[in-house]
């Protein structure tokens, strides 16, 4: 692993999660939501142990592999983290139930599609008792590190990732559950993952001029700020109260109105293209607290200028447990 561990107050040092190794995610991924095929809590625990073994076996070499727990496991007797619940429908969402939620999410990431596909096939061969609920493949175009941050180009031709921390310590500080949050002991060092399948109206978007697109986003395509602030610095929106330079309804301004105090989350998003015009973003982020991370941002984005170009159709809330398998007994103990 290429990142430092998170240090809890009790001295526990969970190793970095596969989803948060380093500042640059792998270039390709597959995200799968799985449901248990049947029954009682004892069966669920056995099936979970087998799935975890398969996920750990896949997590080697150039492949990162992890699973996240869905809130529906509570119906099977699981003792879940206190903040885990089913992802609600936000303003403008049109969630497809067949493409949303799931008992668990499994994500495999690697350097190329064939490596990822091979790892997924081997993993699923050992995933007895599970069936695929939904699945999507993604890639990070122009995946690279600049200024210590992992950047990529999204389907709207804009570079994103500037809001992430530029070091692993900053990543773990935003993303990993601490032991003073009131969560179960086994959950310390884990992370809440949000997955959102966001369909982009790229044909409509491309009819706008680049200048108009930049005003909708609030940055230049290459990441430069509209008010002239250098890319690696944070602008003061307070100095532009009427939105003359950066419109008040632009994406970046609504998402983080105080650029010097960014939301406590880490983005790990990928583009997807299923054909037939169904393309967009697999938005994914990790945080200690859903309400203080993703949800506070998502609620601020209601009414943004970019809303008419996007439609969230699926995804879910999940909890990525810390490394090891001690959490399985805690999850299903009576």
Question: Your description of this structure?
Answer:
- The chain is of the alpha+beta class and about 325 residues long.
- It is built from eight helices and twelve strands.
- It has helices at about 40-60, 115-125, 170-175, 200-205, 210-215, 250-255, 290-300, 325-330; strands spanning about 30-35, 65-70, 105-110, 130-140, 140-145, 150-155, 160, 190-200, 265, 270-275, 280-285, 310-320.
- The strands form three sheets. Strands 8, 9, 10, 11 and 12 form a five-stranded antiparallel β-sheet that branches. Strands 2-3-1-4 form a four-stranded antiparallel β-sheet.
- Strand 10 (about 270-275) and strand 11 form a beta hairpin.
- Helix 1 (about 40-60) packs antiparallel against helix 2 (about 115-125).
- The two termini are about 35 Å apart.
Identify the notable features of this structure and list them briefly.
alpha+beta; single chain; 5-stranded antiparallel beta sheet; 8 helices; 334 residues; 24% strand; 22% helix; 4-stranded antiparallel beta sheet; globular
Topology, number of strands: 12
Low-confidence stretches: 1-15
- The average pLDDT value, as a whole number, equals 92
Q: How would the global form be characterised?
A: globular
Strand content: 15-25%
- Rounded to the nearest angstrom, the radius of gyration is 20 Å
Treating each run of at least 4 consecutive H or I residues as one helix, how many helices? 8
Would you tell me the structural class of the helices and strands?
Answer: alpha+beta
Order of helices and strands: EHEEHEEEEHEHHHEEEHEH
Q: End-to-end span in angstroms? A: 34 Å
Main sheet, how many strands, which sense, barrel?
5 strands, antiparallel
The percentage helix is 10-25%
């Amino acid at each position: 692993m290429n990142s430092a561990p998170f240090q809890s107050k009790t001295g526990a040092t969970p190793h970095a999660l596969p989803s948060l190794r380093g500042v640059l995610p792998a270039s390709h991924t597959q995200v799968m939501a799985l449901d248990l095929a049947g029954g009682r809590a004892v069966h669920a625990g056995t099936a979970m142990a087998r799935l975890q073994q398969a996920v750990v076996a896949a997590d080697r070499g150039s492949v990162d592999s992890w699973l996240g727990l869905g809130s529906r496991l509570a119906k099977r007797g699981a003792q879940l983290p206190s903040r885990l619940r089913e992802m609600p429908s936000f303003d403008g969402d049109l969630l497809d139930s067949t493409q949303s939620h799931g008992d668990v999410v499994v994500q495999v990431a690697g350097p190329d599609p064939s490596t990822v596909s091979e790892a997924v096939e081997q993993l699923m061969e050992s995933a007895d008792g599970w069936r695929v609920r939904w699945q999507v493949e993604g890639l990070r175009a122009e995946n690279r590190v600049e200024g210590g941050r992992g950047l990529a180009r999204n389907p709207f031709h804009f570079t994103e990732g500037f809001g992430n921390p530029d070091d692993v310590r900053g990543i773990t500080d935003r993303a990993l559950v601490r032991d003073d949050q009131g969560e179960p002991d086994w959950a310390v060092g884990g992370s809440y993952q949000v997955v959102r399948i966001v369909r982009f109206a790229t044909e409509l978007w491309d009819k706008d001029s680049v200048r108009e697109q930049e005003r909708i986003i609030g940055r230049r395509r290459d990441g430069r700020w509209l008010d002239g602030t250098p890319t690696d610095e944070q602008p003061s929106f307070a100095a532009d109260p009427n939105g003359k330079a950066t419109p008040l309804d632009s994406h970046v301004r609504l998402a983080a109105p105080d650029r010097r105090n960014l939301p406590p989350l880490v983005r790990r998003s990928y583009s997807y293209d299923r054909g037939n015009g169904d393309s967009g973003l697999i938005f994914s982020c990790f945080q200690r607290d859903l309400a203080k991370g993703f949800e506070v941002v998502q609620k601020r984005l209601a009414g943004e200028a970019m809303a008419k170009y996007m439609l969230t159709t699926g995804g879910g809330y999940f909890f990525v447990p810390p490394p090891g398998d001690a959490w399985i007994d805690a999850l299903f103990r009576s």
